[in-house]
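Lab channel / #folding
Pinned by the channel admin:
"Please post every new chain as: sequence first, then the structure tokens as a reply. Keep commentary short and put observations after the output so the thread stays searchable."

First post following the new format, from NK:
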Amino acid sequence: MKNFIVPTKEQVSVNNQEIFTNLEKMVGFVPNLYASFAYSENALGNYLTFQNGKSSLKAKEKEVVNLVVSQVNQCIYCLSAHTAIAKINGFTDEQIIGIRKAEVDFDSKLSALAVLVKSIAENKGRASEDALNNFFEAGYDKGNLVDVLLVVGDKTITNYLHALIDIPVDWPAVPAI
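Reply from TO:
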């Protein structure tokens, strides 16, 4: 496999340099995963547009999806990044471990979401009937289901990018489970 080195701002296109500048302002740095999208002229901008699109899901719900999918795919980069983001959104370390395992005992609605997402991710989109029924019984609707799939797709993209090019993790380390 060709060795991938995370590109610097000076090594990417002018368009991507502008995106790097915006990321530096918003996040304080350019995460290595985002920088790696900049190998492509268009991927970083397209990905950020997709990732930041409107959703019926709340921030905490998106983080549940991000953490569960990343755990199923064993993506240490995304687990590290989304653990940090989940903490910003108010989850504790113990809750985050439970979410990663899809064993959410502190919120029944988030539990139904985590179980469904785990079933989707493990079964390549073919969630169990029980998981799907529990999701709807918890108060979610068909629109929420479609939005869940968008977040699953978003996270699958980044999990796979990390798996393919082994991006160095630039977020605080998280424990394996």
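NK: The longest helix spans residues 142-165.
TO: also worth noting, The chain has two domains: 9-52, 59-165.
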